[in-house]
Amino acid sequence: MFLPFVVISGVSDNMADDFSESLTPPVSPFATDSQNDLACARPPCFCCSEVKDEALSTDGYISRGSLKRLLLRLDPAPTEYEKDTVEIFGFPWVTETALVESTKLLFGLFSQKVYRLENLVQSNSHDFGQAGSLHYEAEDLRQQCVWFLQYIKVFLHRFLEPSVSLDAAHPHPYEELESQFPSALLEELFSITLLTGRLKDLPASVQSSFCIQNHGRILPPSWHLLHLHLDVHWSVLEILHTLGQKMRGQVVYAHQFVNLTGENLTDTSLFEEHLRALLCDLTGLAMGKYNKVRPTDALSSNHYSCLCTKELWVLLMHLLQHRSKVLRTESFWSYMNSLLRPLVSGKPAAENSSGLPSHCKDPVGFTWWLITHLAMLGQYGRSGTGLNEKHLGHNWTFVEELLRLTCSPKDGLAEEQVRMHVHCCLSLCLLWEPSTSAVSVLWDYYSRNLNGSFIVPWLGVSGLGTVCKTPLALLEQARSCCAPSPLCSPGHTQLYSSANSFHIFLRVLALCLSQDGAGGVPQRQIKGRIYSKFSSKKMQELSETGLLNFLLLFLVVARQVELEDVANRACDLLSLLPSNCPPSHRTLVWRGQLSLLLLFQVCLLIITMIHLSYSWRRNIFTCLTRLQERGLDVAARAEWLAFSFSETAKEFYNKTTEVSRRLALWGPLGSYLEGVAEVFETSPSLSLSEEKLLSEGFDWLLPACRQSELNSALGFLQTVLAQLRRVHQRSVQSAPAPVWAPTTANVIKERHLVVAAALWAHFFPFLHSLRLSQTPPAQLADAAAGFTLLAFDLPSSAPQDLQPHPVQSIMQCFGWDDMVQPILVTRYLPHMLQNSDLLSSLSSASAQSLSVRSWFRCVLQQHLHKNQDGTDSRTGRALAEQLSELTRLVLRLPEVDALLQRAGLPPTAARPEPTSALETFVKAVGTVYSQLQLLSERSAMVTRALDYIGDILKHIKPYMVSRNQEGIQLAYWIVGCVVKHWSPLLATSKAQQLLFRLVDGLLLPHHLPQQDRALRDSLPLFLQGLSVASSVSQLQSSCLKQQLCSVIHRYLDHFLPAAPSMGVVANHPVLLGACEAAPTPQGASLRRTILEVLCERFLQFKSRAPPPRLSSVLMFLLELLRRNGDTDVSLLTLPLPSLLRCLMLVNEPQVRKTSTDALQLVVERCAAAAAGGPCMQMISALRSFVEENEGVYDRQVYGVLETVAILDPTVVEALIPSLSLSLRNAEHKRGLGKNITLR
Question: Which residues form the MMS22-like C-terminal domain (predicted)?
Fold first, then answer.
């Protein structure tokens, strides 16, 4: 040993007391080397400053392997302390003898370092300039202490041997010291425990270092002091354990302590005392943290103050479990139970476990919380890994005591406490093997409180739990109870907020039932305990909540154990309910029964999935047969449900049932619909007698439903129809039946036919009765479409009145009948037309023509649902949307597409506007007809066209009755388009009758229709079409021409203003119909007819009296002539006599001006047409004018001729010989000689 220390070690004990910090130089010459050595060989210690994500520190005792070496009796530091000397507290010491020879001195130096660190804590200031130096100094002091403690462990392992008797008379001084070393070490360890004291006695400033969150490189001295205390507490236990192992069972006494105090102090007693004090302090720290934990955060809030205390808990667990196995001492749980049992019992704590804080807001809850988190820590292995392993045994004995306290009727704990306790129990079940006794204790509690709501008021809505509104939701909740979330997942830690205590208990129950899958004794015991709690009286006492809890309980049990047995017992118990139970109870009963049916289907689905494996195919039919033999065919339960449903539906249908009662009855009835829909949706094959649920109760229910209720019923029907078709198609498209089960496909098809027959019998008649309703339900079309597609898939299932072509029969009822409302047709037909398979089967021309006619009618009647003020109603908006889709599909029909392509008018828009699309279609039909040459083809086209439009006047009649202005305008415009574009077609013998009806009904009724706006828009179309038709027709041309003249006369007179107005005349519909940019023969023919009507009806003078509204008529005539560039002289001269007479007889300036302008226009165009010479037609007209008027209006006639001569002198010059002869004849008749004035 180094000489100075030999002297020191040989001095008396009093020198140890006088040993002060002055012996350690402030700047040791070995300090730099010492720090480097420590940096290279830093011993394990508690350090959480750089640890994140709840992982154990890499510098800790577990990660560095210290715990594993301790338990395996290996060298604590195999690569350290191998030199002859070791540097401790800045001085070199002989490695093999220092601790024996200088025990007190080394421990004295250790105490000085602790005192120095405590002084740094007390002198710590908030000066950031000193924070770094204080940190490094405190860290150095702590590392020196830890280094010394590590040296003690290594020394004990390497150099300590059990003491033997000293036989020599004068033993060596070292041998004497060595024999006394265990006792001296024990005394020094005891002095260390007195020096450091208890964790709970640390100042608040030091304990607050547990809460340092933002860990950094610079830490306060208090943090280092606190973690040094943790190092000391663990090292004392580790050293005592190693000392006991090295002494091989010999008890080590602290002789000097015994001599001074008279009390025994052994290594075992010190270990026990220090251990219990440490456990008590750690529990006290956890208790302080629990007082700030909300119940909702119980499992997510850890019990340790920092990760170092977490590691300390893990170290204690493994050390005590190891000692329990090797030394037969108490286990970790035994220590904790003895510490916590007095706390939960309320009795005074034992003397050796005193020191727990007296204030705890909930001792039982704290105990549950602490036990649960300690059990979680028990998953850590000796190396800090293996989080899912079970290194720590269970503690069910004490937990069952806690359960009895929780479930005790005397204490009457609130739901918020019970929920947290049961939540902890569930966590323990996931960590340990579930306990049948624990489940029994819990079931005793919940069987007494089955009617409880288990609500935590302060949780609000989230605390109400899940409301199971459907059987599938109820079954899903049961499934979630049978498959609890993993232990540390959010689904588990947040269970307090999402489930009540009863639901958490069901998870515990499911875990316990699942541990014995073979139906062993624990399962039978639990089932027996559950069954025994339900009697007739108990069932009748169940409230609505209690009944729901009952159903959920049996669903959970049924999922985990024998389904048939549990389902039968549940049905038997439900039959004990009173027959006059409230509708809400009936709803729950049906919901529960349907949930059981769904559970049966889940079993069938699992077995059916075996079919995916080829090796199991041979057994699938056998499995299905055994399912039915075992009672998995749900016919009996379905019949019971259907009977109960029918009785309720009859009461719902009864007219004497009060309104309030009907509203209450709809609750179970609606729930039945939802539940049966879920049964069908989840059924893989519809082979478990599901058709029994479609009973005659629907015959009573459907007619009694109001609108909202009917929508629910029709939605249910659609679900069932769709599932039946889906299952049937899947069975048809699957592989053919194998030779070992040839009848399987036939059996499945028969079951599908049975289900279809129930649907046809109980639903279709009601749908058929609604088809002519003025306000059909929105979903009626969808349901009818479902039946149509069902008839397409299973035609033999349809009733006889729809045979032999059920699809066409149903489409006639709901899609092609003119009596059905457009809102129904436009929703029904798209279902049919977008089904390619069905469309290909309806490739006949008649089916497509009927679909086009329905579309034509719907476009025509699209404004039937307008509001009185002209705004769109909800039905109108729905009709517009549906009509747009129907238009898109109709234009894709082969027949329609061929017409459009042939006419060169293919649709360009993806979703064409219906009215525009109809106009295009009408144009296409007219264009194609004009292209046809063969008489047979033209005749067939006429027939098809008439089929397209149907009885169009009948379609328009609703508009006329309701005086729907927008609808009337659309109707007139569409009919006008038909008359214009189909004029050659309508002129045929087949269609003339329709044309006459259209003209008589719309344009020439007995009373003039007050539809000026509609007529202004459509009259040009009518006039143009009628003009063409009258010129094309061979047989009825005179009748059509007469009708055309009548239309022109009526509306020319109707729209002609009383006073001349250029704005009114310019927009006259007759004028607009006659005008065209480039003259055509068809347009000229119409203008000729208009001029004829104008001259015959509006420009005829009675004697000298002019016709009424002459100025307006002449203005119309002038505009007609001006807007059209006609060059036909015969057409131009038609109004000439009338114009000449106006100039002759009327002196009104406006009339004369208008007449002169019109005459000038006629004369100039006739002169232009005569190519430089006089126009003979005009000369003839003027000659007739002179001959008719010369005897009466001689002066006026020559005045008019004078005006004409100004416009075209050649015409008048050609008339001079005739005028001279006429003058001489007049003079001769007069007998007065020459008329100088006229000459």
Answer: 881-1239
Q: Which of 595-599, 1070-1074, 1223-1227 has the lowest mean pLDDT?
A: 1223-1227
1102, β-bridge pairs: 1105
pTM value is 0.73
Question: Hey, which residues does 1105 pair with through a beta bridge?
Answer: 1102
Q: What is the pLDDT of residues 202-239, one digit of tens each?
A: 998 888 888 775 456 788 899 999 999 999 999 999 99
Distance CA 417, CA 504 (A): 13
User: Residue 1054: is it exposed, middle or buried by C-beta count within 10 angstroms (0-12/13-18/19+)?
Assistant: middle
Q: Residue 149 CA to chain centroid, in angstroms?
A: 63
pLDDT of residue 604: 61
- Give the three-state DSSP class for 1104: coil
Instruction: Catalogue the long-range contacts made by 791-798 (C-beta closer than 8 Å, 24 or more residues apart).
Output: 792/835, 792/837, 792/838, 792/841, 793/725, 793/728, 793/729, 794/728, 794/752, 794/753, 794/756, 796/753, 797/753, 797/756, 797/757, 797/760, 798/760
Tell me the pLDDT tens digit for each residue of 333-366: 999 999 999 888 876 544 434 568 777 888 999 9
Query: Is the distance from CB of 429 to CB of 467 less than 8 angstroms?
Result: no
Among 303, 330, 301, 305, residue whose Cα is nearest residue 317: 330
Q: Using N-to-C axis directions, what is the helix angle for 307-326 and 221-246, rounded to 10°? A: 10
Three-state DSSP class for residue 903: helix
- The band of 170, judged by pLDDT with boundaries at 50, 70 and 90, is low
pLDDT value for 557: 92
Q: Is residue 659 within 8 Å of 591, Cβ to Cβ? A: no
The conformational region for residue 450 under phi > 0 = left, psi -120 to 50 = alpha, else beta, is alpha
Confidence of residue 15 (pLDDT cuts 50, 70, 90): very low
Grouping H, G, I as helix, E, B as strand and the rest as coil, residue 872 is strand
Is it true that the peptide bond before 471 is cis, omega within 30 degrees of 0?
no
Q: Strands 91-94 and 85-88, how do they pair? A: antiparallel
**Tokens encoding 1032:** 């094309």
Closest CA to 692 of 630, 626, 645: 645
Residues 924/927/929/933 CA torsion (nearest 10 deg): -140
Nearest 5°: the CA angle 589, 525, 427 is: 80
d(CA 618, CA 559): 27
